[in-house]
Each structure stands twice: as C-alpha cells, then as structure tokens.
Amino acid sequence: MINRAIDRLKETRYLLVITGAGISAESGIPTFRGNDGLWQNYRAEELATPWAFKKDPEVVWKWYDWRRGIIGKAEPNNGHLAIKKLEEIIERFFLITQNVDGLHGRTGIKNMIEIHGNLWRVRCERDGKTSMLMDVPLKSIPPLCACGNILRPDVVWFGESMPTEETQKAYNVMSLCDTLMVVGTSGAVYPVASFPQTVKEKGGFVIEINLEPTPISSIADISLFGKSGDILPAIVEGITGQKMF
Ligand code: NAD
Prior knowledge:
This protein has two domains: 2-29 and 76-116 and 162-240, Rossmann fold; 34-73 and 122-155, SIR2/SIRT2 'Small Domain'. It is built from nine helices and nine strands. It has helices at residues 2-10, 22-25, 44-47, 50-55, 57-73, 78-89, 164-176, 195-201, 228-240, and strands at 14-19, 92-97, 112-114, 117-124, 130-132, 151-155, 179-183, 205-210, 222-225. The chain has a six-stranded parallel beta sheet, with helices on both faces. β4 (117-124) and β5 form a beta hairpin. α1 (2-10) crosses α9 and α6 (78-89) runs parallel beside α9 (228-240). The longest helix is centred in the N-terminal third of the chain and has 17 residues, at 57-73. It starts with a helix and ends in a 5-residue tail after the last helix. The protein binds nicotinamide-adenine-dinucleotide.
C-alpha cells in the first residue's frame, strides 16, 4: 500500500495535505477524542464554543491556558518534519491544518493556512484587531484589549463560521490539487471534511493516514493505518531514496 502512495506522489504535480489533531498527538498534544482530551471533567465541545465563552470567559480562558501549557512544551514531531520535506520535493504543495497549536509553522513550512486559527493569537470581537498573546498585557483573565473589551483566542469555535479568506483559499487549492493527503483527522469537521469526496469527483487521488478507519476511508484510494510520525517519513524516504533521520 505505501508503495502505491509513494508512486502516486512521485508523479503528483500539486499536493494538498490536510492535517488534524492526530498529527500532533505524537508531540504529546491530546486530540479532542478520548479521556486525555478532558479538562476538569469538561469535554472540549463544551468549552470551545462562543456560548461557553459568553457564559464563563474565565473558565474557557483557563482551559486555553492549560492547552497552551502543554503545547508550549511540545516540539514538532517526525510527521510535521516529513510534511515540511514534502513541500520541498513536490512541484506544487499546500497544507491546510485544522490544528491551532502552531507546530507546522515551527518547521518553517511556507505554503500553509491554519484554517481554525492559532491559540497563540488573540482577537477583540469589538474592534476586530488580532495580536500575539505575548504582546498583550496579562492583567486579568481573560486579558483586555486597548479598547476595554475582553480578548478571545483567535480560533474557530464549534458553531462558528470559518474565516472567509482562508476558506476561499482552501477551496482554491482543493480545486487545483491532483493528490489530496489527509492526515490524523476524524473527518468530521467541515468544510475540509467534504474535500476528499470533491477531489475524487474531479478525478484526483486521495491518500489517508490515520490510526484507524474514518468516514474518509471509504472514499480514499489508499488508507494507511498507523502513526503519522512513522508513515510520513517512510513515504518521504520512498520518494527521495534517502533516510530522513
Ligand atoms: P479529532 O480529535 O476529531 O481526530 C483525531 C484523529 O487523529 C482521529 O481520527 C485519530 O484516529 C487520529 N490519530 C490520533 N493519533 C494519530 C497518529 N499518531 N497518527 C495518525 N492519526 C492519529 O481531530 P480533528 O479531526 O482534527 O478535529 C477536531 C478539531 O479539534 C479540529 O478542528 C482541531 O482544530 C481541534 N484540535 C486541535 C488540536 C491541535 O491543535 N493540536 C488538538 C485537538 C483538537
């Protein structure tokens, strides 16, 4: 199976990679599924919503502080590094990540959007300004914007619509790619959840990498089951003929 993926990637002209929480799991960052995604018995779906923030901004902010504490100690893993290498070796390349942890960016990858935002950035809903959290005075929880309004994490919460510009870009690259590789996502979050089907309908090829079957598996041309931190470097090594690590 992996050899078929390698052969396909060798002849790919435009590769689109989509990643989800699974790619960062080997960096020690919990996915939203399973008990390690729980915080003080709250499920992520109860906290990552505009309604939760409106009701109790302090508790939502503290949950983000907890997540930033884990992510701040994490490093990009072999899967993130292999994706960066794919950018270097494939003619045209784009990455759409659903992750908000910023780990892809730390590999130096260039052609990427973080479609669900980044939890190191904050936004004021009143004046629309965004800033990096480290540039904001942390005098209260949540901290305040210069305009006096409370700041929120600059991420897309459940029940919110995607940022228009990023969504447009995502649809554009999806329409251009001839191979789509979907890594470590349960395939439940739209709009990228619909991309495998659309890419197939326009004659493209879909490769999935996940620990276990997902709704994408029945659409994908190839599903590779295992850890992305093992499979992605093996793919890169198959393309280049050189050991990655
Ligand atoms: P998800 O939690 O719904 O699914 C994670 C998927 O990754 C599962 O299908 C699981 O089988 C797979 N997986 C776990 N470990 C893996 C590994 N080592 N190799 C390959 N696959 C592995 O995640 P999702 O589909 O991305 O959707 C959840 C939403 O939560 C996303 O929008 C994302 O923004 C957010 N989220 C982000 C982070 C992060 O930034 N690291 C973490 C948790 C959730």
